[in-house]
Design a protein that fits this description.
Blueprint: H1 10-20, H2 38-53, E1 57-60, E2 66-70, E3 80-85, H3 98-113, E4 122-127, H4 140-145, H5 151-156, H6 165-175, E5 190-196, H7 201-205, E6 209-215, E7 217-226, E8 230-231, H8 243-257, E9 266-268, E10 272-275, E11 281-282, E12 285-294, H9 297-304, H10 307-313, E13 319-328, E14 331-332, H11 335-347, E15 352-357, H12 363-366, E16 372-377, H13 393-411
Parallel strand pairs: 3-4, 3-5, 5-16, 6-15
Antiparallel strand pairs: 1-2, 2-4, 6-14, 6-16, 7-12, 7-13, 8-11, 9-12, 10-12
Helix pairs in contact: 1-3, 1-13, 3-13, 8-10, 11-13
Pfam families: M20_dimer (PF07687), Peptidase_M20 (PF01546)
Family: Belongs to the peptidase M20 family.
Protein name: Zn-dependent hydrolase
């Protein structure tokens, strides 16, 4: 009997990625499909239609995660999960996240086309709000699924317009009312996430597939600086409580403290909001984000512990509140599962190399509850979170072929 990998269609996979990219398409060729938006809901509805047409069973959970099940012969056996996310950054690309979901879907179609009924069910999953661009922090759906965050806390999170996750989920559930609800969490035999690399290594070295060794740690914060609005022409400098000057002093202090000559530490201020944001008014309030990453957990924790002190020391006459949003340490995926992925790639004569992930993924949270692996495929120049994000049909298909055979192998354990 032919392996599922031989039934993977590069053209069908490519067409599905292009079709999914229509939801939230931008004029520059990218995608703006933020979590729980109308575009995200439409994309999920389309995936449900595709799955049902393939004979897969759709379901959703209370955290907004979407599942398509390829049934197995043993209904009592825990399923194998594979997927990623459909939400994007405001100026995202066509492949980040979506490739992982649609590669898993293509793998399920290939397994069905091969005429194989695995022992365990295979669930294709689209996790809710991986990106964290609209609602912070990211990876909400997978974190709730894995029991790392309470559902109530996630539902209470708000976007910049004050819309709560719970409210946005309720709107989405109305549009997907035909999709039955399933319980949160549950036993999982294994999880495999395919993804574009989001780095230049695979393309530069000519490998179509990467076997991911682990994920570097990431701690995130929300900093709110409170000053006092005042007239730009009449208020005295000595009496001002300028939230913008205080915030920029904090940013410079943090950047200096976290600078390293090896360029290993990743320190990013990705969001910066000023109120009232008027040309002739001293800033009364500033809110900014901190994204801090390092592969060494001890070093990351040490830097993270300095954030509140450094912000307080630079606040001047203003008040500051530092809220830690997430604290995900570095992790290493199980060697046994990585070796199984390598063996599949070898059987398919697909060149591969081991490499770490510098970016966070939903696999981080699944790693805590089940054996987890990740497969990378190249993306052009490593460019991602960008409308120009690009990947080739041949590389996307190569990763999917490895994924299809690995999923069947795991589902027959």
């Amino acid at each position: 009997m032919a392996a599922p990998s031989s039934f993977v269609s590069a053209q069908r996979l490519w067409d599905s990625l292009q079709a999914m990219a229509r939801f939230g398409a931008t004029a520059a060729g990218g995608v703006n499909r933020q979590a729980l938006s109308a575009e995200d809901t439409a994309a999920q509805a389309e995936l449900v239609r595709w799955g049902q047409a393939t004979g897969m069973l759709a379901s959703r959970d209370a955290a907004g995660n979407l599942f398509l099940r390829l049934p197995g012969s043993d209904a009592s056996a825990s399923p194998v999960l594979s997927g990623s996310h459909l939400d994007s950054q405001p100026t995202g690309g066509k492949f980040d996240g979506a490739y992982g979901v649609l590669a898993a879907f293509e793998a399920a179609r290939a397994i069905r086309a091969a005429g194989v009924v695995p022992r365990r069910a295979i669930d294709v999953v689209a996790w809710m709000n991986e990106e964290g661009s609209r609602f912070a922090p990211g990876m909400m759906g997978s974190a709730v699924f894995a029991g790392d965050r309470p559902l109530d806390a996630v539902l209470a999170a708000q976007d910049a317009q004050g819309v709560r996750v719970g409210e946005a989920l309720a709107v989405q559930q109305q549009s997907l009312a035909h999709v039955p609800l399933r319980p949160l969490g549950g036993a999982v035999h294994a999880f495999v996430e395919a993804h574009i690399e989001q780095g230049p290594v695979l393309e530069r070295e000519g490998y179509p597939v990467g076997i991911v060794s682990g994920i570097q740690g990431k701690h995130t914060f929300r900093v709110e600086v409170t000053g006092e609005a005042a007239h730009a022409g009449t208020s005295q400098r000595s009496e001002r409580k300028d939230a913008l000057l205080a915030a920029t002093a904090m940013v410079q202090s943090l950047a200096a403290a976290f600078h390293d000559v090896e360029d290993i530490t990743k320190f990013t201020i990705g969001r910066f909001e000023v109120l009232p944001n008027a040309p002739s008014v001293v800033a009364a309030r500033v809110v900014f984000s901190i994204d801090l990453r390092h592969p060494d957990t001890a070093r990351l924790r040490a830097m993270s512990a300095q954030v509140e002190h450094l912000c307080a020391a630079a606040r001047g006459p203003c008040a500051v509140n530092v809220q830690r949003l997430s604290a995900a340490d570095s992790l290493e995926f199980p060697e046994a599962l990585r070796q199984r992925a390598r063996a599949v790639a070898d059987r398919l004569a697909t060149p591969w190399r081991d490499l770490p992930s510098a970016a966070g993924h939903d696999a981080r949270y699944l790693h805590a509850v089940t054996p987890t692996a990740m497969l990378f495929v190249p993306c052009h120049l490593g460019l991602t979170h960008n409308e120009a994000e690009s990947a080739t049909p041949s590389d996307l298909a190569a990763g999917t072929r490895v994924l299809a055979d690995l999923l069947l192998e795991l589902a027959n354990d």
